[in-house]
Amino acid sequence: MATKPGGYAIGDLVAFSFNNKLLTKRVIATPGDWVDIDADGNVTVNGQLLDEPYLPDGAKSLGQCDINLPYQVPENKYFVMGDRRSVSVDSRLQQVGCIPADQIAGKLEVRIWPLTSIGPVS
Fold first, then answer.
1. Distance CA 61, CA 105 (A)
2. CA 7, 38, 73 angle in degrees (round to 5)?
3. Structure confidence by residue, pLDDT tens digits, 53-81
4. Which of 60, 64, 68, 112 has a Cα at 20 to 30 A from 89?
5. What is the pTM of this model?
6. Rounded CA gap, 39 and 62, in Å?
7. Which DSSP symbol is given to 92?
């Protein structure tokens, strides 16, 4: 289930439309933030290493990236990345870029499928 709050914070899972598909990605940086990613996939935001306890062991990866790093997030946009970093199509690619706030369908708050995993999204 997704809700549409007034703003989104680093770590929030959000849904948005891209190429007629609904994608789910994690907010990594907010408008005006500086993002950098090293060769090992460690992400820094405004010079601070991003704590990503939601990533499974070994998930960090630079992945596909064709933007110049460090990168400043434009006004009213969000830098998003998938949790499966090595294969995720996200803001690291110019074809996706940062997501405008008005194109975000909402923040994911409750998981309803599979039934054995019903509960809050972390």
1. 27
2. 30
3. 989 888 999 999 999 999 999 999 999 99
4. 112
5. 0.87
6. 6
7. T
Q: Please list, in sequence order, all residues whose beta carbon lies within 8 angstroms of the beta carbon of residue 104, skipping any fewer than 6 positions away.
A: 4, 8, 14, 15, 16, 78
DSSP 30-91: -TT-EEEE-TT--EEETTEEPP-TTSPTT-----S--S-SSEEPPTTEEEEE-SSTTT--ST
- What residues pair up with 34 in beta bridges, in sequence order? 72
Residue with tokens 């990503």: 52
Please check whether residue 1 is in contact with residue 108, taking contact to mean a CB–CB distance below 8 angstroms: yes
Residue 116 phi, psi dihedral angles, 5° rounding: -70, -10
Q: Give, as one character, the DSSP assignment of residue 99.
A: E
Nearest to 27 by CA among 14, 40, 44: 14
Report the C-alpha gap between 65 and 37 in whole angstroms.
9
Q: How far apart are CA 112 and CA 73, in angstroms?
A: 32
What is the Cα–Cα distance from 121 to 112, expressed in whole angstroms?
10
Q: Say if residues 113 and 1 touch (Cβ distance below 8 Å).
A: no
